[in-house]
Amino acid sequence: MVSTLRRSLVESIGVGLLCLACAGLASATDSPLTVIQATMHEILAILQDPAYQDPDQSQVRIQKIREVALPQFDSREIAKRTLGVHWRDRTEEQRQEFIRLFTDLIEKTYSSTLDRYREDTEFFFDREHIDGSYAEVDSRILAPSLNKTFSLSYRLHLVEGRWLIYDVVIENVSMVRNYRTQFNRIINKSSYENLVQSIESKLKQLAASPS
User: Fold this and answer.
1) What tens digit of pLDDT does each residue of 28-73 get?
2) Do 72 and 29 touch, CB atoms closer than 8 A?
3) What element of type H or E holds 158?
4) Domain 2-208: which topology?
């Protein structure tokens, strides 16, 4: 079920999507590595801005990150890859609904973990590999407050001259593949409609949880 993700993986996805949020303020002619590096300080500035440190500013901080993040990844491609073979059986209306629900699920899942990575977080970029219209950028995140180092790889593709992320691999676990496995299991055991209900239920649960 959607609600049974391992906590450690959810937290890692949170870190990964923090960096995914950092993927787009450079120009479209820049390399994937430059695109990610160029905006890292912008996102960290939001996370560390004294104006947003009070508990009642948490949602403002998250919203500012969201405004930067959402245009920078290919939400349709991520949703399509996550739904897998079941995508082709969906109407366009169902696809748009799934994109919205899955984007909300990712946002609400990782937003509650961001505060854990605001202080003393360090980013290291190890390798960039470009193969035509596809690319992969390897990096690491050191979070001293958690005494953890996470390996992250970003998978990007060119869309109308822009590098957009379509997957993030955290500690050798693909976010897309992880969710696809869960969603496929739900659909095969019951139905696509049940998957939608499961996601909606998870979203309500996350909304009701204290931030």
Assistant:
1) 457 888 877 766 667 777 777 888 778 788 778 878 877 777 777 8
2) no
3) strand 148-159
4) Nuclear Transport Factor 2; Chain: A, (3.10.450)
